[in-house]
Design brief:
By secondary structure, this protein is α/β, with parallel strands linked by helices. The protein contains 14 helices and eleven strands. Strand 2, helix 6 and strand 3 (about 115) form a beta-alpha-beta unit.
């Protein structure tokens, strides 16, 4: 009981260095434990409980009118059942070479054939131009698995139109891209499926969890694939896994969603201050057209890897940092499955080697935040005084 009381106390503001890379915003026990009265009363703890249904409806509607949702055990399981439901087995699937390994692992698990593609150097994401190159080498590509890198919510209308015109299925790995503001009009085609993460490292975090959002027809297929492929009649079954989220996860999701909008705005404000701090440094590249993201991290791109490493060394006593997504898929995968790739992966290889993520920590005290910002600024100033001369002939 003493442990429970300890965790029911008010969260403390971060007061010491080095700062963490992640300050989880998982809802307090007190905020969701009361919601669990419903499943205990009904004796329904999984397989389509009322809390899961409520969370699905609430969060799907947040992403646009007429959208449906499927609450699942993780973003990865959500990707797997989406790929299974939309016929990925034995089909070539284009995905970014610059993404988290889970995206690739989902393709393998669903029986697809992954083709690692290069990215646009300004957005760090797949583009129509890069997909055109990939389809010339691999004309059999049938599915595009797009990653919203670092959770940035960019306008994908050109990509959606391209997929429509070429009869390509589009799935979006939106792991960290749950929007801070309600989407009044979703520009995505109704057949496009998005998969979100509710992992503790995400701004809308519950521990482990995921959410798939799409139209009614696709969500029905995905729900079936997430329940072992079982038919309603129980007379037969098709391909599937157990991807369901239980009522405990649903209770945490409902509690987390209640505070997500206000938490998301605080994260956006912190990112805005970081942007103002970093903009004067012309030798680093900041993310562009980020949209209504809730900022899981703040990525900055250096011109050269050694600049990144020296900067990281200078700030290590002040804050933790991490190189997402490194290594890139094609150079980093060492498993036994077959990963194919286009001939030129130079852009994705470069961003993988030169991007460093800083934390987004809106709960910092003013004193700690000022010291954090000052240290970042000083480290960058020192770094480029050293490195500009070293690379002047490059």
């Amino acid at each position: 009981m003493g442990i429970v009381r300890k965790f029911l106390r008010r969260e403390e503001v971060i007061k010491s260095f080095p700062l963490p890379l992640i300050d989880p915003s998982v809802p307090s026990i007190k905020s969701w434990i009361k919601i669990l009265k419903s499943p205990y009363k009904s004796k329904t703890f999984t397989n389509g409980g009322k809390l899961a249904s409520s969370a699905e409806e609430l969060m799907a509607n947040w992403n646009g009118k007429d959208r449906r949702g499927y609450l699942c055990s993780s973003n990865t399981s959500g990707l797997i059942v989406t790929l299974i439901a939309l016929g990925a087995k034995d089909k070539k699937i284009a995905l970014s070479n610059f993404t988290f390994p889970a995206t690739l692992q989902a393709v393998f698990a669903a029986g697809g054939i992954p083709i690692a593609c290069d990215v646009d150097p300004s957005t760090w994401e797949l583009s129509v131009e890069e997909l055109e190159k990939a389809r010339k080498m691999h004309p059999e590509i049938k599915i595009i698995l797009h990653t919203r890198v670092f959770g940035f919510i960019r306008d994908l209308s050109e990509l959606v139109k391209y997929c429509q015109n070429n009869s390509l299925t589009l799935i979006i790995d939106s792991a960290a891209a749950f929007p801070v503001r309600e989407v009044k009009e979703n520009i995505l085609n109704s057949e496009v499926v998005e998969v979100f993460s509710l992992h503790a490292t995400k701004p809308l975090g519950i521990g482990e969890g995921g959410l798939v959002v799409g139209n009614d027809e696709n969500i029905k297929k995905i729900r079936k694939a997430g329940n072992f492929g079982l038919e309603k009649s129980n007379e037969s079954f098709s391909d599937g896994i157990n991807a369901k989220a239980d009522e405990f996860a649903a209770a945490r999701a409902l509690a987390a969603f209640e505070k997500f909008k206000s938490n998301g705005k605080l994260r956006q404000n912190f990112a805005r201050e970081l942007t103002e701090l970093l903009e004067p440094f012309k030798k680093i590249t900041l993310p562009v057209r980020t949209g209504d993201t809730s900022w899981s991290f703040y990525p900055i791109k250096f011109e050269h890897e050694d600049q990144l490493l020296e900067f990281q060394e200078k700030i290590k006593d002040i804050t933790l940092s991490r190189r997402y997504y490194r290594p890139a898929l094609f150079s980093g995968y060492s498993g036994k499955n077959h990963l194919y790739a286009v001939s030129d992966l130079s852009n994705s290889t470069d961003v993988s080697n030169t991007i460093l993520c800083l934390p987004i920590l809106p709960r910092l005290s003013k004193t700690i935040k000022n010291e954090f910002f000052s240290s970042i600024k000083n480290a960058l100033r020192d770094e480029f005084q050293i490195r500009e001369s070293k690379h002047s002939d490059v």
